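Continuing from yesterday's entry. The apo prediction looked reasonable, so today I'm repeating it with zinc ion included to see how the binding region is handled. Same sequence as before; SMILES copied from the compound registry.
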Amino acid sequence: MLLSGGIDSTTALHLTKRKQGVRALTFEYAGIARRELAAAQAIALRAGVFEHRIVRLPDLREAADIPGFTPSGLPPTYIPLKNSIFYAFAASYAEETGATCIVGGHNRDDAKVFADASPEFFGALQRSLWSGSPILRRNRLKIARPLSRLTKPAVIRLAASLGVPFELTWSCHRDTEEHCWRCDGCLSRTRCFKEAGIVDPLAAQSREN
Ligand SMILES: [Zn+2]
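Holo prediction written out below.
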């Protein structure tokens, strides 16, 4: 289970967590918000995962942090070939632990922006992993994306029905103690909760303070 600390991956974890032996994998790339990592740890602990491994990738950066790299049509949070790298690590972890499924929390909107979140990419990746690993082929390793048909507001409605602890999740792109409610991540969170018709406990809390 790839766990970032955001709402999508937390929802995918809650869909999966009743299965036995669920392990979570979080990537600590350069510039990741400290609070996002802390959120992933708190969510994994609350969900009772069998193991939560944090992979450190200090040389992997977002486009905004790479001088002179401004790919057109992609947000500043884009990480070059992110899913190829993350899922290769996840497959290595699956080979090591005998896992038969890798779960990612990509929603329908992600595939519209990122080519490496598309069904074609994941189909080709699964075939590639099977051809590169007799163990994964024997275990019939699957890449599951249970939210791939849902928009973000639909994910939020599903999350609410599953009892996802929204208060533990982190959506802000800034490395601050509280959500700033001004960056793209925060603005998207506010808009999607509003569209879903669900009250965000974190936003409510920050209005009270
Ligand atoms: Zn923010």
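Comparison notes:
- Strands lie at 23-29, 51-57, 101-103, 142-144.
- DSSP finds nine helices and four strands in the chain.
Will overlay with the apo model tomorrow.
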